[in-house]
Design goal:
It is a single chain. This protein is α+β, with helices and mostly antiparallel strands and about 210 residues long. It has two domains: about 140 residues, no CATH class; about 60 residues, no CATH class. Helix content is about 35%, strand content about 20%. It is built from six helices and eleven strands. The strands form four sheets. Strands 6-5-1-2-7 form a five-stranded mixed beta sheet, with helices on one face. Strands 3-4 form a two-stranded antiparallel sheet. α3 runs antiparallel to α4 and α5 crosses α6.
């Protein structure tokens, strides 16, 4: 699938293979579960994001990936959008990457999602001079094939140690979608925080190693 991304006047043509979308389905499901909890769109917290808002949020990550030449993040974010909006043709965004201003164009014979007003017709995917980002070769094996030692080391790496905030305790977890650290719930005792951390480490270990609980 070809996905066109317009950032100001620059047009990028992204080649997103169907195989990538299929192989990353579990990853996209995890993204949706995270977004089900709500998300921050600039200065606004959206408690129940609709499909267009989710794709705007992900397109913002795609913007950063394209600007910073982060192919790994870019191919995942483009794949998510293509999976959730299979008729999308073009994403328009400005240099700031402001989420609410991101606009989606759809193929001329496809209706837009209910949450978005009808867009203008999509641009040609064959316009000359488009930089091409081919993501097919970038797709890594899905989680579940690490050996036990490597999986445990990786899990420990992605879950911080427990730390104290005032009189409360918590730890942080690496968000594998954005690459950012997210704080876990704050609890009243170090023992409880350590127990919650161990549960998080075990869960991540099982995901990486493919071992059963």
């Amino acid at each position: 699938m070809i996905l066109n991304v317009i950032i100001d006047d620059q047009i990028y043509e992204l080649n997103v293979p169907d195989e990538l979308i299929t192989q990353a389905d579990d990853f996209f499901e995890r993204m949706d579960r995270d977004l089900d909890q709500g998300m921050q769109m600039s200065m606004e917290w959206v408690e129940r994001p609709n499909q267009v808002q989710r794709c705007q949020y992900v397109a913002n990550k795609l913007h950063s990936a394209v600007v910073n030449a982060n192919d790994r993040l870019g191919r995942l974010m483009a794949g998510y959008i293509c999976a959730r909006m299979p008729d999308v043709d073009t994403i328009e965004m400005d240099e700031t990457g402001e989420m609410q201003t991101i606009n989606f164009r759809f193929k001329a014979d496809s209706p837009p999602p209910a949450e978005q007003t009808p867009p203008s017709a999509g641009i040609s995917a064959s316009a000359p001079g488009m930089p091409t980002i081919d993501m097919a070769h970038m797709f890594a094996p899905p989680p579940g094939d690490m050996d036990a030692d490597a999986a445990m080391a990786k899990a420990e790496e992605e879950i911080s140690q427990v730390f104290k905030i005032g009189r409360q305790y918590r730890f942080s977890m690496l968000n594998r979608i954005t690459g950012e650290w997210v704080d876990a719930a704050t609890v009243g005792s170090e023992e409880e925080a350590q127990a919650l951390r161990q549960q998080a480490v075990r869960s991540r270990y099982y995901e990486l190693s493919g071992q059963q609980h």
